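Appendix B. Chain record.
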Amino acid sequence: GALSVQQGSTLWVTSTDESGEWAYARVLQAPFGASQNSAELPQPAWVPRALLQRAVYPACSAFDATGQAQGLTLKLGDCVHVYHREVTGWTYGARLERLAVEGQRRQQRQQEVEVGWFPEACILEPLPIA
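Structure tokens predicted for this chain:
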């Protein structure tokens, strides 16, 4: 069946179908003001990928990946999409384009410009979805 969620919910996507149009996900957190009781959260199910928006994580410290074949260099204030996290503390993700004017960050979707590995400690909790 399909997953019924409220706008603003945080989902954990575990897989996608062969067409890439559906994602299998579970609700991690309901939006503020909604029920926070984990027993009331819906069971994992399919959700259309067109409804999903990737979380944006700001970098809280720099990471220099020079000399690392698959490393991702981060500067303080960069933003990333996270694709995969390892228990070792390494995270695979994409750095988003750097915008000249900080206020533009929340008003437009930034393009992914580079992918690679970086320490999870370099990023904060995701920014709120605008």
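Further analysis of this model is presented in Appendix C.
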